[in-house]
Write a structure and sequence with these properties.
Cyclic Phosphodiesterase, Chain: A, five-stranded antiparallel β-sheet, disordered N terminus
């Protein structure tokens, strides 16, 4: 299941668009993240094909996310030998959760804590309580491993695009209103942005672990 070496992924900023790593990579340390995956369908990508060019008229350096998800944890560092026990603890806590629907249709601008990256996201407007329940269980596992728990009063969201730096000034206000109007007016947006949550996923280094919901 795991490679023979304890080295995590190599750190090369040219491979991730110049993003600043929020913690240094060290031998045997694996960046780990728990989230709900979102499989983008063609209609969703069609919506992005309208949204992103419009946002780029305000911030040309914005780029589309390659994969889509809703975070249930911060990015934390796990030692290699902790990965399997951590995942097993997560799975044990996810077994009682049922699948659920959520809607993410409110455009919102986010930054990471260090303000080194800005994101355009779709905020969850229904299903928030179920996400809070999931985070509560993930947080318990984080506490067992002495890791950082999730943000207080979180805004669950699906990131659509990102850029280096703090671009809130350019994106909030007029641009945000226009992006929301695009979402509200998009054909079948109500159906398109209502999503069935079927699993929780954990990414640790270059390994992925899926935890199906009931």
């Amino acid at each position: 299941m795991f490679p023979g070496t304890e080295e995590g992924p190599e750190d090369d900023s040219t491979k991730h668009g110049g993003r600043v790593r929020t913690f240094p990579h060290e031998r045997g340390n694996w960046a780990t993240h728990v989230y709900v995956p979102y499989e983008a369908k063609e209609e969703f990508l069609d919506l992005l094909d309208v949204l992103l060019p419009h946002a780029q008229t305000y911030v040309p350096r914005l780029v589309r996310m390659k994969v889509f998800h809703l975070s249930l944890s911060q990015s934390v560092v796990l030692r290699h030998h902790w990965i399997l026990p951590f995942v097993q603890a997560l799975k044990a806590r996810m077994t009682s959760f049922h699948r659920f629907f959520f809607t993410a249709n409110q455009v919102k601008i986010y930054t990471n804590q260090e303000k080194t990256r800005t994101f355009i996201g779709l905020e969850v407007t229904s299903g928030h309580a179920q996400f809070l329940d999931l985070v509560s269980e993930v947080d318990r596992v984080m506490e067992e491993f002495n890791l950082t728990t999730f943000y207080q009063d979180p805004s669950f969201h699906l990131s659509l695009a990102w850029c280096v730096g703090d671009a809130r000034l350019q994106l909030e206000g007029q641009c945000l209103q226009e992006l929301q109007a695009i979402v509200d007016g998009f054909e079948d947006a109500e159906v398109l942005l209502r999503v069935h949550t079927e699993q929780v996923r954990c990414k640790s280094g270059n390994k992925f672990f899926s935890m199906p919901l009931k």
